[in-house]
Each structure stands twice: as structure tokens, then as C-alpha cells.
Amino acid sequence: MARRLAFLTLAAAASLVLTACQSSAPTPSPASSEAGATSASPAASAVFNPGGSAQDNKAFFDKVNEQTLAANEKASSNDLVNALSAAGFDKGAMQVTADKTPTGLDVDFVIVSVKMGNECLIGQRAVEGYVSEVAPVLSTGECLIGQTQAIDW
User: Fold this and answer.
1) Region 75-87 average pLDDT
2) Mind listing the pLDDT tens digit for each residue in 28-51?
3) Angle, nearest 10°, between helix axes 54-71 and 77-86?
């Protein structure tokens, strides 16, 4: 129990640090935002631009993640990485958090990121749904803070 409490405290602290290091709060994706909805959703016409910035590819990143989550709302970290990789994003530029705690319990959220130049696409699958944002690369050269899962598959 003490290890779980320590892990949850660490996860909460890492989440706060991650939020504090970024320029703004996560923005709900177009599919989950009711305000300002239009008949032509940016995600519906999103395409991958390999030479583009993170901002240029955000709609496509969201589209891929939302499709993955529509197929399985509890998609694993592997599922999210595999879908993004299959869609053209560089797996070597990705980071992802684990979908299980050290004691084998399901986590409340999974964060996946893709580093594109000096920006990061960051998406989070949570109990409340999906959110994403574009954030600057951290001073460490990474997109996420804390321990991430090795992407070795």
C-alpha cells in the first residue's frame, strides 16, 4: 500500500511538473469540444505532413488517436504508439507512459508524445476522454517528464 501511495504521489507530482512546464493547459480535441463546432471538422480532413511542424500535424495526430480510442476506449500504450507509427509518425521520436502501475493495476491515463523539431505533440487518454496539445520541447530534449515506457517493439 505504501508503494502504491508513493507511486501515485510521484505520478501526481510529475503531472503537475509537466503541466507547469508547458505554455498552456491541454485543449480538448475537436471531436470532444462542443464550443465552436463547425460542420467541417479539422480532424475529418487532417493529413500527415512529414516535413511540417507539430502544429501542422496536430489535427492528424488527434484523428489517429481518436480513431484508436473509438475502437477501444482503453487502448494500451502499445496500441497508441502502433497506430501513430502506422500513420507515419516516427516511432523513434515518441515517448509513452506505461498503462500499468508497478503493481499491475490499470493507470488512470496514458500519455503519448511525438517530438517534431522543437515542439511536441502530446495526447492523453484518460477516464474523462482524450485531450491533446502542442508544447515546446523540454530543456531535457524530451517531451515528457518522468519515467516512460521503452518503445522497443
Assistant:
1) 97
2) 444 433 333 333 445 556 899 999
3) 130
**Are 78 and 153 spatial neighbours (Cβ–Cβ below 8 Å)?**
yes
Strand order in the sheet with 119-126: 27-28, 129-136, 119-126, 109-116, 94-96
Q: Are strands 119-126 and 129-136 parallel, antiparallel or unpaired?
A: antiparallel
Q: Where are the alpha helices (DSSP H) in the chain?
A: 2-21, 54-71, 77-86
Q: Which three cell numbers stand for residue 30?
A: 475537436
Domain boundaries, the chain: 2-32+41-136
CA 33 to chain centroid, in Å, comes to 17
Residue with cell 473509438: 70
Other C-beta atoms within 10 Å of 6: how many? 11
pTM above 0.70, yes or no: yes
Q: What are phi and psi of 117, to 5 degrees?
A: 65, -125
Nine cell digits for residue 21: 512546464
Strands 94-96 and 129-136, bridge-based pairing: unpaired
Q: Give the CA distances from residue 115 to residues 5, 52, 77, 125, in Å, rounded to whole numbers and listed in that order.
A: 31, 12, 16, 18
The one-character DSSP state at 135 is: E
